[in-house]
Design goal:
By secondary structure, this protein is mainly beta. 9% of the residues lie in helices and 51% in strands. The protein contains 2 helices and 10 strands. The chain has a 10-stranded antiparallel sheet with strand order 4-3-2-1-10-9-8-7-6-5. A hairpin with a 7-residue loop joins strand 9 and strand 10. The longest helix has 11 residues. It is globular. The protein starts with 8 loop residues before the first helix and ends with a strand.
């Protein structure tokens, strides 16, 4: 397995600093997601999936090729793992009609940092078979996509990043 640091660590730290405040402290009303928020994601991307291994607790990264297409309010993410083809997958993620849900999960924060769009989902789920609160943060720009999934066991706990998709647009686009 390949091990490395995320491709956009500095930008990601900046984004986390911008969205790490509790949602009830945000003074502006939540704006709904729109199809144009997803436009940045369409294309062919290459990078890595980094994840926290359940057994060893170590951070692991594997190469990833990502193809993203859009049909109306839905994105189709096709993940191709060149070194682990048995893990390849494809799934569709959609914005709800009102724009306050994505992939069936509530949007708690959305906005822009310069030319990049971002939004955050928070919901109850499971991690390694245990009930947890989960958070997904999506960031789309013309040059990169970052999707981070984190969890915590209670609202008083810090978030633990479980996995991150961190890709850059391929040079052919």
């Amino acid at each position: 397995m390949i091990r490395h640091l995320p491709l956009h660590a500095g930008l990601w730290l900046f984004l986390c600093a911008c969205v790490s405040s509790p949602v009830d402290e945000v003074s502006e009303p939540l704006r709904p997601l729109t199809e144009s928020d997803l436009d940045f994601g369409v294309g062919t991307w290459t990078g890595a999936l980094s994840y926290l291994d359940f057994t060893s607790g170590e951070a692991v990264a594997i190469p990833l090729d990502l193809e993203v297409s859009q049909s109306g309010p839905c994105l189709t993410l096709s993940l191709d793992f060149p070194l682990e083809p048995g893990a390849n997958s494809s799934e569709q993620r959609c914005i709800s009609e009102e724009g306050f849900m994505f992939h069936g999960k509530p949007v708690v924060l959305s906005g822009n940092i310069g030319a990049a769009a971002f939004f955050e989902l928070e919901y109850e789920g499971q991690d390694n078979g245990l009930p947890v609160q989960k958070r997904e943060v999506y960031q789309f720009s013309g040059a990169s996509i970052t999707i981070e999934t984190a969890f915590r066991t209670s609202k008083d706990d810090a978030w633990t990043v479980r996995n991150t998709i961190d890709v850059e647009r391929t040079a052919a686009e």
